[in-house]
Amino acid sequence: MADKTGLSFLDATFRAIYPQDYACRQQAEERLNQLTMPQWALGDLMDLAVDLAGMTRSLAPPVSRKKVVVMVGDHGVAAEGVSQYPAEVTAQMVRNFVRGGAGINALARRAGAGVCVVDVGARDDFPDLVRAGAIVARKIGRGTANIAKGPAMSRTHAVMAVEAGIEVANSLAATTDVFGTGEMGIGNTTPSTAIAAVFTGRKAAELTGRGTGIDDERLRHKVAVIERALAVNAPDAKDGLDVLAKVGGFEIGAIAGLVIGAAAQRKPVIVDGLIAAAGAMIAVSLEPFVRDYLICAHRSVEPGHGALLARLQRKPLLDLNLRLGEGTGATLAMHLVDAAVAILTEVATFAEAGVSGAA
Predict the structure, then answer these.
(1) pLDDT exceeds cutoff 80 at 213
(2) Quick one: 36 exposed, middle or buried, by C-beta within 10 A (0-12, 13-18, 19+)?
(3) How far apart are CA 57 and CA 142, in angstroms?
(4) Per-residue confidence at 4, pLDDT binned at 50, 70, 90?
(5) Mean pLDDT across the stretch 198-203?
(6) pLDDT > 70? residue 19
(7) What is the pLDDT of residue 1?
(8) Which tens digits make up the pLDDT trace of 152-171?
């Protein structure tokens, strides 16, 4: 769909994305260098403070209103037995999110963050939850096709998935300072690892992890399924929408859109684990300036995640051997975002405190 200028929705959104503000970054760095502590003594937290100033164009970055957006989608490749859990767990977990009983709910409450659940591609429908306003309905299809046998979706549906994520970001922007990426979809480490293989050029065997906790035999099978998906579909690394359509997922596309939408709104977006990084990689492939708004929460135990972080040129804040997903790592990183802003805005400079600086 084109706007009144004739631009497509995606192109119009891309045109709203600019790099971080250099002047604000410089001012933040100057203040941090004058704080009552040895130079850059809080290391990565101070780097994060500079990034937040540049992203938000402010020396007092607004970060109090946090929202984790959990994108939900099922995957046809789950039929290949790549996960420890059956496909029906996706729908069951959606209801667990709504009841507040999942890992993401517990950690989000501690971080002071809201949780927004968005159905972009679940196999099941949730009419009662939609009517109650408990989840957001942006369904594009009831799960992807099996990537081991052909494309996950059409290119049109790939565009729709990304646009759905942008629309969610736009709808939440007025009440959200910091976005966190979350996801739910049984089997989704398989397409995410395939995406990692496409963009990094590394072999599936090097990148494939155990996902939900599969054993050695099933791990070997998972590698073979990913290799088959790459061979059957031949995704083009120079075309992010082609990669998404051929070996991606609806929720991965929606995460890409959320990242793009957050960047267009000049809002920081905290990227969770492997699946979120795959979505962020799609986003960056479509609009490189998006990278300036990414905060990578952690490095998970999934080997594909580390490879994607390197490709995204972003250093993770935490390394806690996490592998849950849902946005749990992003909520943990929200505490560090708060800490970085506190350092920038609350710690006195040597001059303000009347303390002698370094000789």
Answers:
(1) yes
(2) middle
(3) 40
(4) low
(5) 98
(6) yes
(7) 53
(8) 999 999 999 999 999 999 99
Taking the C-alpha atoms of residue 208 and residue 303, their distance in angstroms, rounded to an integer, is 6
Q: How far apart are the C-alpha atoms of 109 and 237, rounded to whole Å?
A: 38
Tokens 């492939």 sit on residue: 285
What pTM does this model have?
0.97
- Residue by residue, DSSP assigns 19-60 as PPPHHHHHHHHHHHTTBSSSTTTTHHHHHHHHHHHHHHT-SS
326 is catalytic: yes
* 3-class DSSP assignment, residue 15: coil
Element (H, E) at 294: strand 294-296
pLDDT digits (tens, 9 = 90+) for 54-100: 999 999 999 999 999 999 999 999 999 999 999 999 999 999 999 99
The domains of the chain, with CATH numbers, are 9-62+342-353 (1.10.1610.10), 66-335 (3.40.50.10210)
The pLDDT of residue 6:
61
Question: Residue 138 in contact with residue 261, Cβ under 8 Å?
Answer: no
Full DSSP string of 181-200? EEEE-TTTHHHHHHHHHHHH
331 closest CA partner among 271, 260, 243: 271
115 and 68 in contact (C-beta within 8 Å)? Answer: yes
Q: Which of 29, 326, 346, 352 is catalytic?
A: 326
| CA gap 247, 119 in Å, rounded | 19
- At 123 the three-state DSSP class reads coil
Helical ranges in the chain per DSSP H? 9-14, 22-32, 43-56, 89-99, 103-111, 127-131, 155-172, 189-200, 204-207, 216-233, 240-247, 250-264, 274-286, 303-312, 328-346, 350-353
Cα dihedral 147, 151, 155, 161 in deg (nearest 10): -20
- Cα–Cα distance, 2 to 16 (Å, whole number): 15
CA dihedral over 169, 172, 176, 177, signed as positive or negative: positive
Share of the chain above pLDDT 90, in %: 95
